[in-house]
Amino acid sequence: MRVGDVMHINLVTCSPDDSVSAAVQQMVTARVGCILAVGDDGRLAGVLSERDVLRLVAEDADMREARVGTAMTREVLTVEMDADLAWAAARMADGKIRHLPIVEDGHPAGIISMRDLLELSAEVLRLQGPAAASDVLRAAVGRPAATTAAGQR
């Protein structure tokens, strides 16, 4: 499966020149955890996430004065639409990244979130049945799978 198969295409974007206050209002209205900052050339310039906003709150910054471009994360992991979904999910988990922009030639084309991956995983596990879900949960907590007298799960 590819990230392009599951990405959201209704992107919430702003300019790096916008106030953080305006960007946060867009995030709240759209009920998303990040906003993509797009430059005048249409290319992804960075991402303003909930974490970035919390950092500003901790610094007691004036959100109306602070600009997205100074608060956003600039070094953003991105992938192309044909990237393998499992590979992308592993990169997100390894980097503790909650939102992964999908780009085409540097231009935002979509986004996936950890929540999207969790919902997709839950659906796969539901379809595979209780045994598969139990195996995943045991693996998550590092416990060996239970075996029967015949040595089978």
UniProtKB/TrEMBL annotation:
Residues in coiled coil: none
Keyword Phosphoprotein: no
Sequence ranges assigned to domain CBS in this UniProt record: 7-63, 72-127
Origin superkingdom: Bacteria
Keyword terms of this UniProt record: CBS domain
SUPFAM superfamilies cross-referenced by the UniProt entry: CBS-domain pair
Name recorded for this polypeptide: CBS domain-containing protein
